Amino acid sequence: MKYRTLGSTGLEVSVIGVGTWQFGGEWGRTYSESDASKIFAAARDSGINLIDTAECYGDHLSESLIGASVAENREDWIIATKFGHHFKKNFDRNQVIDPESVVKQLEDSLRALRTDYVDLYQFHSLDDQAFATEGLWEALAKEKEKGKIRHLGTSIGSNTNSHQVKASPDVGSEVIQVVYNRLDRAPESEVLPTCQEENLGVLARVPLASGYLSGKYKPGAQFPSNDVRNAWHTDNFRDSRLREVEKIQREEVPEGTDMAQWALAWCLKNPAVTSVIPGCKDADQTRKNAAAADLLE
């Protein structure tokens, strides 16, 4: 594994992290504590130390599975979670952004994670009006003073939202999370250069383009009815993306190289990117993701 400094936080994070949206049940599968524990054991053995989760991956469900899995070696992990949504049911959330409610969300997240602090607490992909909520960042600064938050971050919803990126240092946010992958390069125009200029750490989410860049799927692929990709993507969109993936695999991926590993390393070769946070369905896929760090040599 390789490690990079996460912007101005001083945190040394593995270049491959573990994304955990799948634990919330919106990707066509449910996870037990045993399933999650095996994933984090594989991650730890592979040198991964970064976990990304959120309050609304289930109703703190993902956080609960993480907490049960890493409580005995909490100090070995850098845990990033988020605030701003309340889970109602799969694919349905309410926005929760007033300072009092966000502080309650923090307490609920700490309880679920079985910890007394989070390493990175991130604004969760809301609009500019929510970002400017009166008293929000001041309330979070107070929680940081108490030691319940080590660092603040901004997960931007639109991967071209340069406003929130530029405003982040002013509110004490040191890290930007953004969708970035070989199929979606929009952050390269302004977001990523601004992050470099401001010394903001960058977590690249969806680095495998919702699994399309794994190379496993061909045009015409279908997903289970309870998989979020059915809610997001029409058949035409899916097939168009998968035809583009076939072209990339044919023209850009070296022969004999696993496409998913190549796609993760592709993101990391951008000097602005600190770490990628792919999801993983099981321990084997976790180890396979971790091996992508070898392609950086």
From TrEMBL:
The keyword Mitochondrion appears for this protein: no
Organism domain of life: Bacteria
Keyword Ribonucleoprotein: no
CDD domains recorded: AKR_AKR11C1
Gene3D superfamilies per record: NADP-dependent oxidoreductase domain
An example Gene Ontology molecular-function term: oxidoreductase activity
Signal sequence, renumbered to the chain: none
Residue stretches making up the NADP-dependent oxidoreductase domain: 16-294
Keywords: Oxidoreductase
A GO CC term attached to the entry: cytosol
Protein known as: Aldo/keto reductase
Species in which this protein is naturally found: Puniceicoccus vermicola
Taxon lineage: Bacteria, Pseudomonadati, Verrucomicrobiota, Opitutia, Puniceicoccales
